[in-house]
């Protein structure tokens, strides 16, 4: 199966499409996920109401058929909820905002700050890495491994992560395959 | 077989009155079967069509209520084509349609084609097709 990796920022504004009608229902406003595990719990949305008014809505991950290269697919209009009806695990997404968090190794070397999240697309989307920039080692992508500790302000990675920074999504995909095959 | 591009713009003639009522503007689909045809701004049930692969489209207007709401006819050329994963496969350049009104092939502007049986729906955002299983 082909691994589709997407930057979280690329998902912003992407259409949410009803697979039963081919109509777009809303667009992605933000990705909500649990930073430590990379589990996406859903998406916040913008949708058009009457007279072009923008309405807030949410899309719980259980209602997502797939995250594709062009659209996020849902089975029908029932997939979209009012924010007040959002599942509990979507409610605390503010604390999982990792953008601009500092990335440091266990020995204290700063690798930069988190500039973006990397998402594995398809039927079971999840966050699999981070894009780091602004540090002494330059811009790059690091996989979200089981070893990473994440707080609201910093992301701590093992010392050898500095060697595992990859410059592009292809390199990150290869690194993810290594992690999965080693079971780490 | 006929190409959609040959059908769109054809004159349509009401066989009951032998009058030209307008031009074909689009088709409405249920999966890969044409269920309705747009003629001069009207939505005509596909079962009323008597011939569409000649020089003109001929039809016999329904004299009563139809069997329910028909899909709104559109010209799908230029529509993006997504599979159920949300991946973009291309944009529609044309459709090949059988004499029974079934889409046999979806021709893409990118130079390749998809089997018509993969078509699920044509919507305002995209035509949705099933996942290609080798």
Number of helical stretches of at least 4 residues of chain A: 3
Indicate the proportion of strand residues of chain A: 35-45%
Order of helices and strands of chain B: EHEEEEEEEEEEEE
Low-confidence residue ranges of chain A: none
> Mind summarizing the main beta sheet of chain B?
7 strands, mixed
Name the quaternary structure: heterodimer
How large is the count of helical segments of chain B? 1
Shape of chain B: elongated
* Average residue pLDDT of chain A: 81
**Largest interface: pair, residues per side:** A-B, 22 and 17 residues
Rg of chain B, alpha carbons: 15 Å
Mean pLDDT of chain B: 91
Strands of chain A, count: 13
How much helical structure, as a percent, in the residues of chain B? Answer: under 10%
Shape of chain A: elongated
The proportion of residues forming helix of chain A, as a percent range, comes to: 10-25%
| Rg for CA atoms of chain A | 17 Å
Distance from N terminus to C terminus of chain B (CA atoms, Å) equals 26 Å
Please describe what this structure looks like.
The complex is a heterodimer of chains A (184) and B (134). By secondary structure, chain A is mainly β. Chain A contains three helices and 13 strands. Helices cover 12% and strands 42% of the residues of chain A. In chain A, strands 1, 8, 9, 10, 11, 12 and 13 form a seven-stranded mixed β-sheet that branches. Chain A is elongated, with a radius of gyration of 17 Å. The mean pLDDT of chain A is 81. The mean pLDDT of chain B is 91. Chain B has one helix and 13 strands; from the N terminus they run βαββββββββββββ. Chain B is elongated and about 50 Å long. In chain B, strands 1, 8, 9, 10, 11, 12 and 13 form a seven-stranded mixed β-sheet that branches. In chain B, strands 5-4-3-2-7-6 form a six-stranded mixed β-sheet, with no helix packed on it. Chain B is mainly beta. Chain B starts with a strand and ends in a 5-residue tail after the last strand. The interface between A and B is medium-sized, with 22 and 17 residues.
């Amino acid at each position: 199966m082909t691994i589709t990796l997407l930057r979280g920022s690329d998902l912003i504004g992407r259409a949410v499409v009803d697979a039963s009608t081919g109509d777009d229902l809303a667009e992605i406003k933000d990705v909500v996920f649990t930073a430590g595990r990379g589990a996406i719990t859903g998406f916040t949305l913008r949708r058009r109401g009457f007279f072009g008014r923008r309405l807030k809505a949410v899309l719980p991950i259980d209602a997502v058929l797939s995250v594709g290269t062009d659209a996020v697919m849902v089975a029908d209009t029932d997939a979209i909820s009012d924010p007040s009806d959002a599942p509990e695990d979507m409610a605390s997404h503010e604390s999982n905002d990792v953008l601009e968090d500092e990335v440091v190794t266990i020995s204290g070397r700063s690798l930069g700050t988190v500039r973006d999240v990397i998402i594995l697309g398809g039927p079971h989307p999840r966050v699999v890495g981070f894009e780091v920039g602004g540090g002494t080692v330059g811009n790059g992508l690091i996989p979200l491994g089981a070893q990473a500790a994440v707080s609201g302000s910093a992301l701590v990675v093992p010392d050898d992560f500095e060697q595992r920074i990859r410059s592009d999504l292809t390199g990150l995909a290869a690194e993810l395959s290594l992690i999965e095959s080693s079971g780490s | 077989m006929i190409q959609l591009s040959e059908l769109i713009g054809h004159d349509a003639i009401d066989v009951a009155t032998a009058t030209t009522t307008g031009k074909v503007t689009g088709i409405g689909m249920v999966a890969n079967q044409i269920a309705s045809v747009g003629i001069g701004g009207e939505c005509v049930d596909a079962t009323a069509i008597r011939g569409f692969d000649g020089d003109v489209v001929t039809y016999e207007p329904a004299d009563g209520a139809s069997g329910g709401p028909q899909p709104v006819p559109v010209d799908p050329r230029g529509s993006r084509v997504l599979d159920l994963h949300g991946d973009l496969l291309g944009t529609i350049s044309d459709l090949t349609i059988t004499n029974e009104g079934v889409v046999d092939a979806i021709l893409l502007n990118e130079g390749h084609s998809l089997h018509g049986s993969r078509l699920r729906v044509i919507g305002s955002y995209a035509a949705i097709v099933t996942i290609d299983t080798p």
